[in-house]
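Human:
If only I could read backbone structure tokens as easily as an amino acid sequence. I am handing you a single protein, as its sequence and its fold in token form. I hope you can help me see how the letters and the tokens relate. Thank you; the sequence and its tokens follow:
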Amino acid sequence: MRMYQLLWVGRRLSLAWLLLLFAVPGAALAVPVENLYTVEVPVTTRDRPERQEAFKEGLSQVLARVIGARSIEPYAGLDSLLDTASRYVQRFEYGESRADERRPYLLRVTFDGAALERAVSERGLPVWGRDRPGVLVWLAVTERGNRYLVGGDGSSPARRALDAVAAQRGLPLLYPLLDVEDQSRVTFADITGGFHETVHEASRRYRPEATLIAQVAPLSGGWEARWTLAEGAQPSTWTSRGASMEAALAEGLHELGDTLARRTATDRFAEMAQGILVNVRDVRTHAELNRVVDYLQGLSPVALARPFGLRGDDVEVLVQLRGDPRDLERLVMLGNVLAQDSRTAAPRLPGQSRDAAAGQLEFRMLR
């Protein structure tokens, strides 16, 4: 076996991780993302009021990583966490910032990951944990008449653009060495010409969980990047555009993060045997959400109940049953917490769309 480098956002993986890789020949393993719950926020002073605001800004970034989103703005249920950001801080320290003269300090904050994941799950949102698929990136760049492949040296503007988004989203990117072996097997034309089988063959030495093949070039006064993600049996393709090369690459890599987060959340719940989704309408507060989940969990046919999804005042609860769903429905009708909704239909399984299922078990909150 040849020795090679695995690079994530410009940092070497730990020795323990490398030993684990070499100890399992041929295995493709998820990469534990380091510093997933740590951020650096530029600040102008070390005063407490500014530090409290920086905690909020930093927590917003970490929460976006945890739920696998670009930002938390669409998720109103997370606002309350920002108001109490300091309670989730494990440690913080100050350093110097050379990037912004107006804000000469960097506040490095590490948050309590376990507590945040619990809080996110309680609000019915998916949690994307530390173990994430390592993605090997083959990127062909056409820039100012030059053509090159992006490798592990980290010096090109294209590589820096990818790394910036990877750090923001918590994406474990791997890059080819582009050594003699790589160069003898993969050419620029293989990537731009769509000869992906050649690229996949060359990727085997790195044992990634997924392979991302991309090309970026100027187009009509702007830039366009084309992407193909090979993960599992069905590849995904998309196109991103921007006024600059960096913008086009950033948008495309954000799409990668969105895709991986969606797949991970779906797979996680679809694997839960005998699970059905129960939709409860008119749940307005966090306290009411807790009341619904605790109530369902206390019913005899229910082995496990946990929040699954949140859409406005509608909450989906994933329920694992010991018996028939009709037993659950009958017991709910006897209680004074939930009532049957007029749009009730058959239960929906995790991973099924509303159209694919006959419907789902639906209730509304009683007041």
Notes: The longest strand covers residues 210-219. Confidence is low (pLDDT under 50) at residues 1-29, 344-359. The radius of gyration is 24 Å. Residues 38-122 form one domain.
